[in-house]
Amino acid sequence: MPSNVYFGSARQARMEESESLTGKLDLILERLRLSERVKDEFVIIKMHVGSKTGYTTIHPVFVRKVVQAVRDGGGTPVVVDIAGNVRDAATRGYTAEVLGCPVYPVGGAAEKYFYTHQRPYKNMQEWKVAGMAQDATFLVNFSHVKGHGSTGFGGAFKNLALGCVVAETRSAMHDLFHYDRYWFSEKCPDPAMRQRIIDSCPFGALVLDKEDPSELHMHMENCNQCGRCLKVAPPGSLKIDPVNFNAFQEACAISAALVLSTFDKAKTVHLNLANFMTPLCDCWGFSTMPILPDVGIFGSDDIVALDHATLDLIAEEKLIEENIPTSLEVHTRKGHPFQQLHGPLKDPYAVTMYGEREGLGSRNYKLVDVMPVEDMRPAPIGYIPADGGSAQIS
């Protein structure tokens, strides 16, 4: 049976609050019966509060609505993110006064509060799940959708996979890019040739290894698989292989599975907000122009179905190429828009495939539009009363 994914379009017919994305979030929370499910629960709302001067994360108005729904149902909500982001969250408007609940570091102020889980994968054996994530009894996974240099796309999986483990585990997950060999130094003994290979990449994806100058290290986040380096490298010395990129995607599915294993299946809700979609993760601490049109807001009990449906609707849009920073490059018009920007081997759907294998849900879904957009031409706009109250229709 397909999983329900509730959806509210960023488009609206009437110029009314009820048809805005915040109004559609209310409808999605009602469909998910959030308030009915949280009585006496300790509820963490996991989101990315950004860093530094980034301003395209989830607006506090949306978060406040989720917090209120939890409070209305008799739950105790807290917003959580990793310590480094929480430290200056107030400068971006994420405060208890604004949100209606406190904002806490999910793994403690020094990221030393965690529970260790054993799960062998490549060279990883241990995964340290953040303490507040495991202590909570109910999870609201609220994600801002955007591009991502490692995976092409950041959504519900990434929000848990990297945001509910401590720094040591996040670092080990990123190191998985390099577990499978991609540089063969015996095929390129000439230092001058190695430098030519490095210089061939305009994105700085290739550097000399810090410990062994005969080895090349690839920054996978910077690589869009354009192939310039392969045209310079001696045959067999360098390869760009899906196995390196997929390793991180599979690790994200495993990490999310471990986090979700600490909750009863009926006590998780997942939300994706696909607006102000920028090229890179909100971790970077700054914002750029959006590279895709706003799509809308999604909600489901099924994390796999949610991310898959979100990607499907984004796939119907075209990149806003004039908004893409000039230091980036669109070198293919094939595949998903996020692949067009970050490279064909960064398949954003890979994490949903691995997540389905982990038993976290189904890629088979039913999209339920909570407020289909009517084609109304023309329609009244209304007016704002002089006392500053809500808009009225004359």
Question: How does this model look, in words?
Answer:
The protein has 394 residues and is α/β, with parallel strands linked by helices. It has 14 helices and 14 strands. The chain folds into 2 domains: 3-175 and 243-369, Rossmann fold, CATH 3.40.50; 181-240, 2-Layer Sandwich (Alpha-Beta Plaits), CATH 3.30.70.20. Helices cover 29% and strands 18% of the residues. It is globular, with a radius of gyration of 22 Å.
Biggest sheet features: 8 strands, mixed
Helix content: 25-40%
Low-confidence stretches: none
Mean pLDDT: 96
Task: State the main characteristics.
394 residues; alpha/beta; Rossmann fold; Alpha-Beta Plaits; two-stranded antiparallel ribbon
Summary of the model, kept short:
With 394 residues, this protein is α/β, with parallel strands linked by helices.
List the helices and strands and how they pair.
Layout: E1 3-9, H1 21-31, H2 34-37, E2 42-46, H3 60-72, E3 76-81, H4 83-86, H5 96-99, E4 103-105, E5 114-121, E6 124-130, H6 131-135, E7 138-144, E8 146-148, E9 152-154, H7 156-161, H8 167-175, H9 191-199, E10 206-208, E11 216-218, H10 228-232, H11 242-260, E12 268-274, E13 296-300, H12 303-315, H13 337-342, H14 350-357, E14 365-369
Parallel strand pairs: 1-14, 2-3, 2-7, 3-4, 7-12
Antiparallel strand pairs: 1-13, 5-6, 8-9, 10-11, 12-13
Helix pairs in contact: 1-3, 11-14, 12-14
